[in-house]
Write a structure and sequence with these properties.
Distance between the termini: 51 Å
Oligomer: single chain
Number of helices: 10
CATH class of the largest domain: Alpha Beta
CATH superfamily of the largest domain: Creatinase/methionine aminopeptidase superfamily
Strand order of the largest sheet: 4-3-2-1-5-6
Shape: elongated
CATH topology of the largest domain: Creatine Amidinohydrolase
Structural class: alpha+beta
Number of strands: 20
Length: 354
C-alpha cells in the first residue's frame, strides 16, 4: 500500500502534524499487511514503524518487510520514548478507534500535542485495488456456493438456528477464514426484523425466510441476502417480493460513477414508496464493504459521497411488515465505469419451497 502510505504523509504535511498514530486493526492490516491482533502504527514524514509486543515480533517481521518493527513491554512508555527521540510536537490520533480514557492518558504522558482525527485511512479504503477486489470476489463466490449447498436444508420444520449454523460451517469449509457477521435467518414474523437473530423457531407454511450472510476471505468481506418462501404463495407474498425485486433492480441501475449515495438510495426507495410500502423500508439502501462489513460509502438518504470506480457497495432494499414477515434482496456490487458489476450470482427469482 505504498500509495496509501504516501497519502498519509501528504495528510501530515498538509495539516502540520509530525506523526500519525494508528491503532485500528483495519488500518494496520490495510497499510502494512499485518494480521496480528495487537499493534500500533507510528507514521512520520520520513519513517514508519509497527509497534507490537513479543507475541507478534516474528510474524510482523515477515508480514511487514518495509516497516520498522518496534517491540514494546509497555505501549505508553514506548510512545513516550519515540516522541522524545524524534522531537515530535504534533500527533494525529485515530479518534474513532481510541477510548476517551486512553486518549486522555496519552495526552497526560506524551511530550506532544495530540489531536483526534477521523477518516484519514478510511477515505483511502473506499476505492479497492485489484488485489482487494480479487479477495472480495472470492468471498462472494464462497457465499454463493454456500447458499446453493444449504438450500436443500431450508424446509418446513427446520429451525432458523440450524440453518444459520449450516451456512457458517459451509462457508468455512469452502475456504472462508470467518463469517463477515453472524448469519441472519428470520422466518415468518421474525423476518420483519431487519437484523433478526436466529432462534429455535421452525419454518412453517406461508413463511418468508430471510437469509443474510457473508464471509471473510484474505481479510475481505462479502454480504448477500436472499428471501425464500415456504409454500403456499399468496398474492400478497408475490406482490411484496416483486416490489422489493423491482426496487433492487432500480437501485442496481442507479449505481454509476459520480452518482451520490442518496441518489442511488432514492432510485430504489421511490419504487417501494410508490407501491405504498414506504413506511416499511426504514434503513438505508446499502453500504460499503471491504475489510469491514460496514464501511464508506453509504447508500442512504444522507449519503453525500459520489460513487467512484473501484468502490464496493451493497444494494439491499427491503419491506418489513409486522405480524406478517419481511423480504430483503441484497447483492454485492463493484462500481465500474460501465455501472454496477454484480458479484452475487445467486438467482433472485422467488423460490417457493413445497
Amino acid at each position: 500500500m505504498a500509495d496509501s502510505l504516501k497519502a498519509v504523509r501528504r495528510f501530515l504535511t498538509d495539516k502540520g502534524y509530525d506523526v500519525f498514530l494508528g491503532s485500528s486493526s483495519f488500518t494496520r492490516r490495510y497499510l502494512t499487511g499485518f494480521t496480528g491482533s495487537s499493534g500500533c502504527l507510528w507514521i512520520s514524514r520520513d519513517s514508519q514503524a509497527l509497534i507490537t509486543d513479543f507475541r507478534y515480533m516474528e510474524q510482523a517481521g515477515k508480514q511487514c518487510p518495509d516497516w520498522q518493527i518496534v517491540q514494546h513491554d509497555d505501549l505508553i512508555d514506548t510512545l513516550k520514548q519515540m516522541a522524545a527521540e524524534q522531537n515530535v510536537k504534533q500527533i494525529a490520533v485515530e479518534g474513532d478507534h481510541v477510548s476517551v480514557n486512553t486518549f486522555r492518558e496519552w495526552e497526560r504522558v506524551l511530550p506532544a500535542s495530540l489531536t483526534a482525527v477521523k477518516g484519514v485511512v478510511e477515505d483511502l479504503r473506499k476505492q479497492k485495488t485489484d488485489n482487494e477486489l480479487a479477495a472480495i470476489r472470492r468471498a462472494a463466490d464462497i457465499a454463493d456456493q454456500a447458499f446453493a449447498a444449504v438450500l436443500p436444508s431450508v424446509r418446513p420444520g427446520a429451525s432458523e438456528r440450524a440453518i444459520a449454523l449450516e451456512l457458517e460451517f459451509t462457508m468455512r469449509r469452502l475456504g472462508a477464514s470467518a463469517v463477515s457477521f453472524a448469519p441472519i435467518v428470520g422466518s415468518g414474523v421474525n423476518g420483519a426484523l431487519p437484523h433478526a437473530r436466529p432462534s429455535e423457531k421452525r419454518l412453517q407454511a406461508g413463511d418468508f425466510v430471510v437469509l443474510d450472510f457473508g464471509c471473510v476471505f484474505d481479510g475481505y468481506c462479502s454480504d448477500m441476502t436472499r428471501t425464500l418462501l415456504i409454500s403456499p404463495a399468496t398474492d400478497k407474498h408475490h406482490a411484496i417480493y416483486d416490489c422489493v425485486l423491482r426496487a433492487q433492480t432500480a437501485g442496481l441501475a442507479a449505481v454509476t460513477v459520480g452518482r451520490l449515495g442518496r441518489e442511488v438510495d432514492a432510485a430504489a426507495r421511490d419504487v417501494i414508496e410508490s407501491a405504498g410500502y414506504g413506511e416499511y423500508f426504514g434503513h438505508g439502501l446499502g453500504h460499503g464493504v471491504g475489510l469491514e462489513i460496514h464501511e464508506e460509502p453509504r447508500l442512504s438518504k444522507k449519503g453525500e459521497t459520489p460513487l467512484a470506480e473501484g468502490m464496493v457497495v451493497t444494494v439491499e432494499p427491503g419491506i418489513y411488515l409486522p405480524e406478517f414477515g419481511g423480504v430483503r434482496i441484497e447483492d454485492l456490487v463493484v462500481v465500474t465505469i460501465d455501472g454496477a458489476e454484480v458479484l452475487s450470482q445467486t438467482p433472485k427469482e422467488l423460490i417457493v419451497i413445497e
